[in-house]
Amino acid sequence: PFRATIIDVSKESVTVQVTGKSDKVDALIELLRPYGVKELARTGLTAFKRGNQPQPAEVKSYSLLN
User: Fold this and answer.
1) Which pLDDT does position 46 carry in this prediction?
2) What is the DSSP letter of 9?
């Protein structure tokens, strides 16, 4: 009913993404609060770090526009 997606799972945390109207987001936050919310971001397009994976030394980016 909340249109939520689990986007990452580790031994220490679960990252949930929810989209929709403000009242639905508020309801899910209140439902999850007893489990312990460590961090909360309410914004538009967002990027999340996944688990405790090491970052590569070099990141290459490519343009799909050309």
Assistant:
1) 64
2) E
Amino acid at 1: P
- Residue 32's Cα: distance from chain center in Å? 14
- Annotate 12-62 with DSSP letters as a single string: S-EEEEE-S-HHHHHHHHHHHGGG--------SS-----TTPPPPS-----
Q: What are the tens digits of pLDDT across the range 14-60?
A: 999 998 888 888 999 999 999 999 888 887 666 667 777 666 665 55
Global pTM value: 0.59
CB distance 54 to 13 below 8 Å: no
**Position 49: which residue type?**
K
**Per-domain boundaries in the chain:** 4-35
Using DSSP's 3-state secondary structure scheme, residue 5 falls into: strand
